């Protein structure tokens, strides 16, 4: 389990910061460092938000 604070900036400049708890089965900290997992989580939400924004602007 990893506790992290993540900040996301939207396309309109809106900034949101939240506390998140990441739960993973990747238990080898030397192969999967917490900072790398947090970075990947952040990227995942950037891509998800981009897809959501694109689909809502096409409606």
Walkthrough of the structure:
- With 59 residues, the chain is of the alpha+beta class.
- It has one domain.
- Helices cover 41% and strands 27% of the residues.
- It has one helix spanning 34-57; strands at residues 2-9, 15-22.
- It has a two-stranded antiparallel sheet.
- The longest helix has 24 residues, at 34-57.
- It is elongated and about 40 Å long.
- The relative contact order is 0.20.
Low-confidence parts lasting 5 or more residues at pLDDT below 50?
A: none
Q: What is the 3D shape? A: elongated
Biggest β-sheet strands, sense, barrel:
2 strands, antiparallel
In percent, how helical is the residue content? 40-55%
Tally of DSSP β-strands: 2
What is the average of the pLDDT values? 77
Count of individual helical segments: 1
Judged by helices, strands and strand pairing, the structural class is alpha+beta
Radius of gyration: 14 Å
Count of all domains: 1
Report, as a whole number of angstroms, the end-to-end distance: 38 Å
Q: What is the H-and-E element order?
A: EEH
Q: Order of strands across the biggest sheet?
A: 1-2
Q: How much of the polypeptide forms β-strand, as a percent range? A: 25-35%
Q: Which features does this protein show?
A:
59 residues; alpha+beta
Summed up:
By secondary structure, the chain is an alpha+beta fold.
Describe the secondary structure blueprint for this structure.
Layout: E1 2-9, E2 15-22, H1 34-57
Antiparallel strand pairs: 1-2
